[in-house]
Design goal:
The chain has 347 residues and is an alpha/beta fold. Helix content is 48%, strand content 13%. The chain is built from 15 helices and ten strands. A six-stranded parallel sheet has the order 7-6-5-8-9-10, sandwiched between helices. The relative contact order is 0.12.
């Protein structure tokens, strides 16, 4: 958003805390950020508030904003289908217009008699663009990397998740001497943080801000659960999904969350397209076993590729998601008669 000229008053990375215990530990910071956001909104006094993803924070802001008289628009629905379905009552009350990016979400909200608009997934367009623009992997090495021998490691973007998963991924790499393992570093974390993990693995390389370039040249990938699993699938890279969280947070989540899978790939397809190694199942031996299947078993690879093709078709149904959402938002605001100048001039 910053690249498009948006004035960032506070970056999301300063607000993101993952897990129940982590949220409790940082509750003071979270409440301070909520107060800051409310004050900034009142000062700016917008015609409407467009909330994007980040439900723990944005649903609270939506409730407050609606009571203040602001029109509220939400792009990328909170995952209420996963847990706390009763949050739909609040969404219906405080969100004037909702846009969803997963095909099954429209049907989910219909059972609650809440009309939402499916616009497709923005990643489908992003990946297609990247496929045409991606450059060769910019690694300083003595000899060029063999494209068929690269395995990508995507350990996440938060310190706490990287600390739990990256060491296991790195240890598993020792069982694949014929492959080049490359870690995709998060732009928000410095090299010193990664150094304490990578120093013991001199053959493992790393890149920053070139994750798509890495994926497009990879034979397989170990991916932290989240949006990265969907990105990896849309690129077409066979993957093993990895998740290991705080034991207390995981125990609580397991009792509250009602979904069958943790990866977006499996959730959208409603079947186990990719292997998920969760919590105690995420061990070095299991990682090695699953990764060997992705590097040697043609039957497994063929089925995964077929499922990936179907996934792309499902997510491309809405067209260019962000543009479609922008046009719809413009039309929605126009019907509300906001000002003399229509918002379409800014879209």
């Amino acid at each position: 958003m910053k690249e498009q000229g948006v004035d960032i008053v506070k970056h999301y990375r300063d607000l993101a805390f993952m897990g129940f215990t982590e949220v409790i530990a940082n509750l003071g910071t979270i409440m301070s950020n909520i107060r800051f956001c409310k004050k900034d909104i009142k000062s700016y006094n917008p015609d409407a508030l467009i909330l994007v993803d980040y439900p723990g924070f944005n649903l609270r802001i939506a409730k407050w904003a609606k009571k203040q008289g602001f029109k509220t628009i939400y792009y990328i629905s909170p995952q209420v289908w996963a847990w706390k379905e009763n949050r739909v009552h609040g969404i219906k009350k405080y969100v004037d217009k909702m846009y969803v990016i997963l095909p099954f979400e429209k049907q989910f909200f219909q059972k609650w008699k809440y009309d939402v608009e499916y616009v497709g997934h923005p990643l489908a367009e992003v990946i297609d663009t990247a496929r045409n623009e991606v450059n060769q992997l910019p690694l300083a090495v003595d000899s060029p990397l063999n494209q068929k021998n690269i395995i990508a490691l995507l350990p996440g973007s938060r310190k706490q998740e990287i600390e739990k998963k990256l060491p296991l991924m790195l240890e598993a790499s020792l069982s694949f001497p014929d492959y080049n393992f490359v870690v995709a570093k998060a732009s928000s974390l410095d090299d010193e943080f990664y150094g304490r993990f990578l120093d013991g693995f001199p053959k493992v390389r790393s890149i920053r801000n070139k994750t798509y370039a890495l994926l497009f040249q990879s034979k397989a990938a170990l991916v932290t659960s989240g949006t990265a699993t969907l990105e990896t699938a849309l690129v077409g890279v066979p993957q093993v999904v990895c998740y290991k969280g705080n034991p207390v947070s995981y125990a609580i989540a397991k009792r509250l969350i009602k979904i069958k899978y943790i990866s977006l790939v499996n959730l959208i397809m409603d079947k186990p397209v990719v292997k998920e190694l969760i919590q105690d199942e995420l061990t070095v031996s299991n990682i090695v076993a699953e990764l060997k299947k992705l590097t040697t078993d043609n039957k497994v690879l063929s089925q995964m590729n077929e499922d990936y093709d179907q996934l792309r078709k499902l997510l491309a149904e809405g067209g260019n998601a962000s543009q479609k959402a922008a046009r719809s938002i413009s039309n929605f605001l126009r019907t509300m008669n906001f000002g003399k100048q229509t918002t379409s001039e800014a879209v």
